[in-house]
Amino acid sequence: MKNRINTSLSALAVLLCCGALTASAQAVSVQDASVQSLSGLKVSGATLTHTPEDSLSVLMTLDLSEVRPSSNRAVVLTPYVVHGTDSVELPSVGIYGRNRYLYYVREGKSQLTGASEHSFRVKDCPSSLPYTASVPYTGWMDGSELKITSRIYGCCSDILDEGSNLLASYTEPVKEIIWAPDLAYITPAAETVKSRDLQGRAYIDFPVNVTEIRADYRGNAVELAKIRATIDSVRQDKDITLTSLSIKGFASPEGSYAANERLARGRTLSLKSHVEKLYAFPKDFIKTSWEAEDWAGLREYVAGSSLKNRDAILAIIDGDLKPDAKEWKIRSTYPADYRTLLAEVYPGLRHSDYRVDYVIRQFSDVEEIRRLVVSDPQKLSLNEFYIAAQSYEAGSEDFIRVMETAVKVYPDDAVANLNAANAALLRKDAESAARYLQKAGDGPEAGKARKALEELRALGGELKTKGIY
């Protein structure tokens, strides 16, 4: 049912002299109308304003210079605010011809729209009329429109013609919630020595029972190049000092354990000798070890496979039998599965794992650290990342970028994840904050971040909402 209000408002006034309405407004209409109606009315400067007193204020200028009804006629101008089925009428302005005006005066009757109407005899009507009115603000007025209806009346109050014009519209502005989460960052401990390492795995092929490396045999050139590239990637960096190279060789379970141990040892020492010829490393720089048979690697494959007898083979691997007995039992009990392992898995169990250990120098110059955040973040300690972050304004884009770069370099570190979660909260990214907080530990600082995340989610992840500060 249409909610229509026709009432006299104590807060409503029509200014009969030239002037301007002064008000402290919260929001202004999005349309400033300048229209001309069928009665000759011109309207300009129409605005709708939601005032601090929680009223909807209407302000416009009515140009009545061409509104000149004949002696027996009247023109009634009625502004109103409407949104859907809701509306509120504002006091009308009536301009009456001579006879029509005198009729109402003699009869002592109310004007056409009642006592709230502001009426003028045509000869006394001002050419320009500043118009203002205000009504209590209600929720439906968000998205409303200001319109004005012009009606031309003849004798016996018959409406001879009428029309309506849109003057302005009003939408509540989006206002930002002031959200100040209580966050606490942790300063990472400084590293006395920034020890790091690079690890890799090479699959060097050897002819049967041979331990000497042949660089041109099968894919050996590629595998040996991988090792050299790993070493060179840090050896040639002026900020890095190499401390050691570790090589560990493995053979597959095929054949006897004693033979495999000889092969693993011999091939590991052969690889060490090959690397020593490439670099002038100090004595004892390269450390070696070996494992006769890579049963751990075999178990990992079997556990993730679809072998018909997977569980039974796993039970054998996990059992107490000696290595040669295990290999024989698998081969003799499950020959089909064993052939699959021999062809598809055993070659990959013959590998050499290597690790390059090195130390990165300390950085103290803030500008240098800032550059490294962008160019070589892996060289920085968490404490150095924090130094860079602190050099920016908290919550700024650069501050957040540093914190989130740090957690990429140290993805499993609790402090890095906590500080990155705080940074994500500052940019109102609930999804990233939740992911970081999974690894942020259970300290009081993480508790504050989780509380802030709850607040953010309660706001739907959006810290802007209509009509709320």
Automatic annotation (TrEMBL):
Keywords: Signal. Residues 53-107 form the DUF3868 domain. Pfam families: DUF3868. Residues 1-27 form the signal peptide. This is DUF3868 domain-containing protein.
